[in-house]
Specification:
The complex is a heterodimer of chains A (318) and B (436). Helices cover 64% and strands 1% of the residues of chain A. With 318 residues, chain A is mostly helical. In chain A, helix 3 runs antiparallel to helix 10, helix 7 packs antiparallel against helix 10 and helix 10 runs antiparallel to helix 13. In chain B, helix 9 packs parallel to helix 17. The chains are: A mainly alpha (318), B alpha/beta (436).
């Protein structure tokens, strides 16, 4: 016996903006919802596109003939690629080590941030219970103090006569005080981790907290142990959160310069941000600084594009 | 003097935009459309001053008249380096002119000369007095940012200041500037690590900054001119403005070798804070920074003050310089500014300020042989200072600058653009941490 099939939905072309059959909701002009983007568009145009174009105009521009300050050239037909070519050439020369350092520090610091932040965010999301709000408040607390002040505090703590060395020598972990501020990559990485970890905990927490507990219980019901449930259910579900957190944290790390300035100051730990900082403050080097900014932008676009691709894929799967 | 034809392109566009309704001349249109940076400018008129090539700066207008009254109720505005003026001395000035209702709003500071010039150029800060360095003085005049001084209103220059500054090479006839502080660039060191006789007994004490014995304990200023000047001195090259490729190659080699040898760290407070706190054993140092270092060394005991010293060549042939005071063109109180300059470079006030900031003024009444023995006002006044001290610690006589140092010392002057770029390139290699 054949089962009569139910008639499928009738698709009719409907004029955009016109009410659908039987639809009594209020309908708006076709520009109503898009108009909501106007403030953001203006914001972007004023605070992103214009400054970006100015940076590009400086990179391809010239310098003031008297004071040698950067002189942006806004007409592309007058742009000169000389400075850009020179910096690019040096980027494969003596600047290469700076790119390598920057990449190493950011990758290692982001990885450490991820491990630490994931554990904290997981704990708060799963076991925070009634203290969730308090724990979240404590997590946000570092934001109340400026980044610079927190780093300055670390200078005293890490000093050869600081508390860190006092504790380490007291516990006989090291026989002599360690020169933490003597230009060590590990100190710069530690500073980056400390400075940026709150930015990673919060998005991770937001994702982990939204994971349906029923899914975890289903995993357990199907015989998976806690570790397996975590690896097969929690971790895959939190992947977009991990990517978002990594992007949020690693992008500013790439341009960071004051962590290195304050906790090291050694040319051996120079990061890309330091090159920009130095060029900005040097007579006649403005265009070079702008070129570095553009190179940095292009470099950070790569993880950004990966993130966008991954999130769009996961949305497609849903 | 700049002519109408010397309008920068930007100025032209602004003016042309403001009169858009008017019919612009063909030449103006063509000038606006020309390649930026190629329009006629004052750059050709900026002469590079050297001791053997003194420069007389062009007069941009006339100085204010001698009988100009002091501006009543004026608020004195100062644009200066940070931590460079003792507010007590400024307040004394304000009190002295209390009948005129003078007020003081505080000092607008800058961290480097570029920043200072930018603040001045922007026109947003209408400073009454500005403290430029010698290398930008000619540029500031070319850009019409300074006003000529009325010598009658600044008698203290002739009365109290060294003869060498009555007609300086960078501003013949001191049309725009008076000297502020004088200093040498040498080596700061911890005396408990490097005894005085050790550094003074070295064949080439400049090389102590490359000594692997102090690895991780060497600090250098974030100042490419000064650090590279020291590398030149180490190599016996005394032209601190050299464009010679061979000289600069030696500097490059030495700076990169420094990275491998001692892992130097770059810090603006290398010699007035980190040296005192024991972060560094040895640093590049301006004499004034080391002298002022006690202020950063709590609990300010004599013992701690004696912990650090300053070396400069015994024959006094080394980098030497001075900073300046000038009046911006847009100063709102030029008469008050003249009064202030005269006050500031007069003997008593200059020395009071010296006792606080550590940077010596070129005062004729100050016996340079007594500076290591005589107490300054700050030392007598300060409640936090445990041990009264002379202007300069007796154990660092090298930090005292003498008038006779100037004719034999080596000056850092402005560099031509292409030479400056070459210097920057070498410095960039150093800061990138390449190593040799």
């Amino acid at each position: 016996m054949s089962v009569p099939s139910e008639p499928g939905p009738v698709r009719r072309r409907r004029r955009r903006g016109a009410p659908a059959d039987g639809d009594e909701r209020v309908h708006y002009s076709r520009w109503f919802w898009p108009s909501f983007t106007i403030p953001a568009t203006i914001w972007l145009a004023i605070l992103f596109i214009l400054p970006l174009y100015t940076v590009i105009s400086i990179a391809f521009g010239t310098v003031d003939p008297i004071f040698r300050g950067p002189l942006p050239v806004y007409e592309p037909w007058w742009w000169s690629g000389e400075q850009f070519g020179k910096v690019l050439n040096d980027s494969f020369g003596f600047y290469r080590i700076v790119y390598v350092h920057t990449f190493e520090y950011v990758v290692v610091a982001s990885a450490i941030c991820l491990v630490l932040a994931y554990a904290v965010a997981y704990y708060v999301a799963r076991y925070g219970g009634k203290r969730k709000t308090l724990l979240l408040l404590l997590l946000v607390a570092p934001f109340f103090i400026s980044y610079l002040m927190r780093m300055l505090a670390w200078i005293n703590l890490l000093d050869t006569e600081g508390y860190v060395n006092k504790i380490l020598t007291f516990l006989h972990i090291t026989p002599h005080p360690v020169d933490w501020l003597g230009g060590r990559p590990s100190t710069v990485i530690m500073g980056l981790v400390y400075g940026y970890i709150p930015y990673m905990i919060l998005p991770l927490y937001a994702f982990l907290d939204r994971i349906d507990v029923n899914l975890l219980e289903a995993g357990r019901d199907l015989g998976a142990g806690p570790a397996r449930t975590f690896l097969r259910v929690t971790l895959p579900l939190s992947r977009p959160g991990i990517l978002a957190a990594l992007v949020i944290v690693s992008l500013p790390m790439f341009g960071d310069y004051y962590t290195q300035n304050l906790l090291s100051g050694s040319p051996k730990t120079t990061m890309l941000g330091n090159l920009i900082d130095e060029a900005v403050g040097s007579t006649g080097q403005g265009p070079k600084a702008a070129v570095f900014v553009i190179i940095l932008m292009v470099l950070v676009l790569i993880p950004m594009l990966y993130y966008m691709r991954s999130t769009s894929r996961s949305l497609a799967v849903r | 003097m700049r002519h109408a034809r010397d309008l920068s392109r930007r100025e032209f566009l602004v003016r042309a935009g403001g009169t858009a309704a008017a019919v612009p001349t063909l030449s103006a249109i063509l000038e606006a459309c020309s390649k930026p940076g190629t329009a006629a400018s004052g750059s050709e008129t900026v002469q590079i001053a050297r001791p053997d090539n003194p420069v007389t700066l062009p007069m941009n207008g006339e100085p204010i008249a001698t009988d100009t009254p002091i501006e009543q109720g004026a608020t004195l505005q100062i644009l200066n380096w940070s931590v460079y003026m003792w507010k007590y001395v400024i307040n004394q000035f304000v009190q002295q002119y209390g009948d005129n209702g003078i007020k003081f709003s505080g000092i607008t500071t800058f961290n480097n000369m570029d920043e200072g010039v930018q603040k001045l150029q922007s026109g947003k800060i209408k400073a009454d007095v500005f403290f430029p360095t010698i290398d930008v003085l000619g540029k500031l005049v070319a850009a019409d940012l300074l006003q000529p001084l009325n010598h009658d209103l600044i008698p203290a220059l002739q009365q109290d200041n060294w003869a060498v500054f009555q007609n300086p090479y960078y501003d013949q006839g001191w049309r725009y500037s008076v000297p502020y502080t004088i200093y040498t660039t040498g080596v700061g060191y911890r005396r408990d690590v490097i005894p005085d006789d050790v550094i003074h007994g070295m064949d080439n004490p400049w090389s102590i900054l490359w000594d692997p014995a102090h690895k991780g304990k060497v600090g250098v200023y974030p100042s490419y001119r000064d650090v590279m000047a020291i590398a030149l001195m180490k190599n016996g090259i005394t032209d601190l403005n050299t464009s010679n490729d061979a000289d600069l190659e030696k500097v490059r080699t030495d700076l990169l070798a420094m990275i491998d040898a001692v892992s130097p760290r770059i810090a603006y407070d290398a010699s007035y804070n980190k040296l005192q706190r024991g972060v560094f054993d040895v640093t590049t140092a301006w004499s004034g920074d080391v002298v002022a270092g006690w202020g950063y060394d709590p609990p300010y005991t004599e013992a701690s003050y004696k912990g650090y010293g300053y070396w400069f060549p015994a024959d006094r042939k080394g980098p030497i310089d001075n900073d300046l005071i000038a009046i911006p063109k847009n100063a709102e109180h030029p008469r008050l500014a003249h009064e202030f300059i005269n006050y500031w470079i007069s003997f008593r006030h200059a020395m009071d300020n010296f006792s606080w900031n550590g940077y010596q003024p070129p005062q004729t009444q100050a016996d340079v042989n007594e500076l290591t023995k005589t107490q300054g006002l700050y030392s007598k006044q300060s409640s936090s200072w445990a041990a009264p001290t002379p202007y300069v610690g007796p154990w660092m006589p090298d930090a005292v600058v003498r008038e006779t140092d100037f004719p034999i010392g080596y000056r850092e002057g402005p560099l031509p653009a292409d030479v400056d770029d070459h210097w920057h390139e070498i410095w960039s290699e150093f800061t990138a941490g390449v190593g040799s």
